[in-house]
Amino acid sequence: MSIPGLTAAQQQQRRALRRRLRQQRRALTPGARRIAARHLAQQLSRLPALHHAQRIAVYAPADGEIDPQHLFRQSVRPSGWRHRTLALPVLPAVGPGPLTFMCRRPGQRMRRNRFGISEPQPERRHLIPAWTLDVILLPLVAFDRAGNRLGMGGGFYDRTLADLARRPRRPVLLGVAHHFQGTQALVAAPWDVPLDGIVTDREWIVTA
């Protein structure tokens, strides 16, 4: 599929990078993924943006993505983390569109969406509008240190971020990835919204 605003060579570069890094993620052993999740939790726990946040969007990892939920599921954690509201993304029922977010709760009913990713059963009473979140943790396929991101290619987060531009406030946008997913300079699409920061299992990068 052609991407307006990018040359054929740039589009090929993005496809090749996405393919290579997804393969590298999927090749990680379960043990390596658990270690990466613990190290990511350590980095997240130091972030000022998270310390001040009450509503935080996370995601259910798939395709080898690093797991951002380890910090929030630890049985022993600082008391300040216990009363945060966590939200999980839900895909639109059909076609493209922005994500909705549902409050994550104990014993919550989950389902597999059309891509096989775990998400909550939609319940209107537990809906959290994206613009009311304090922080959104976004999964990445690739990133650079300027805050540019490459996702899976479905455009769901792109549409979500674009929709935030017309809202009264905007959450802090933090990309989350394995450290090896960083690249020197990422070719951005015209509609890409730069991230405020990126967090990996080794460091956090302020880009805003």
Give a quick rundown of the structure.
With 208 residues, the protein is an alpha/beta fold.
Pick out its properties:
single chain, 208 residues, alpha/beta, Rossmann fold, 8-stranded mixed sheet, two-stranded antiparallel sheet, 12 strands, 25% helix, 20% strand, globular
How many DSSP-defined strands? 12
How does the helix and strand content classify structurally? alpha/beta
The name of the CATH architecture is 3-Layer(aba) Sandwich
Helix residue percentage: 25-40%
Strand line-up in the sheet with most strands: 6-3-2-1-7-10-11-12
User: Overall mean pLDDT score?
Assistant: 87
CATH top level class name: Alpha Beta
| Coarse shape | globular
Distance between the amino and carboxyl termini: 31 Å
- State which percent range the strand residues make up: 15-25%
Spans of at least 5 consecutive residues with low confidence: none
Reconstruct the topology from this structure.
Layout: H1 8-26, H2 30-45, H3 48-51, E1 55-57, H4 70-73, E2 85-90, E3 100-103, E4 110-112, E5 118-120, E6 127-128, E7 135-139, E8 142-143, E9 149-150, H5 156-164, E10 172-176, E11 197-199, E12 204-206
Parallel strand pairs: 1-2, 1-7, 7-10, 10-11
Antiparallel strand pairs: 2-3, 3-6, 4-5, 8-9, 11-12
